[in-house]
Amino acid sequence: MASLVLLAPSGAEALTLQQVGGGFQQPIYVTSDPGDAGRLLVVERKGTIELVEAGVTSEFADLSSVVSCCEGERGLLSIALDPNFEATGRLYVDYTGKEVPGEIHVAELVAGPDRRTASASTLKPLLAIPHPTESNHNGGQLQFGPDGNLYMSTGDGGGSDDQLHNAQNLKKPLGKILRIHPNPNGPAPFYTVPAGNPFAASAGDYAPIWSYGLRNPFRFSFDRLSGDMVIGDVGQDAREEIDLAPSPRPGVVGGAGANYGWNCREGFLAGPATDPECATPPPAGLVEPVFDYPHTPDPDLGGTTERCAIIGGYVVRDRSLGDLYGRYLYGDLCAGELRSLDLADPSASDRSENVEATGLNSFGEDSCGRIYVVEGSGHVYRLSGSTPAECATPAQVAAPSVATAKPATPTFIGIKPQRRRVERGKRALLTVWVSPCDGRKGATVELLRNGHRNGSRFLSRACTARFLPQIRGGTTFVAATHEGRGYLPGRSRHLTIRLAHRKRHR
Question: Cβ(106)–Cβ(144) under 8 Å?
Answer without folding.
Answer: no
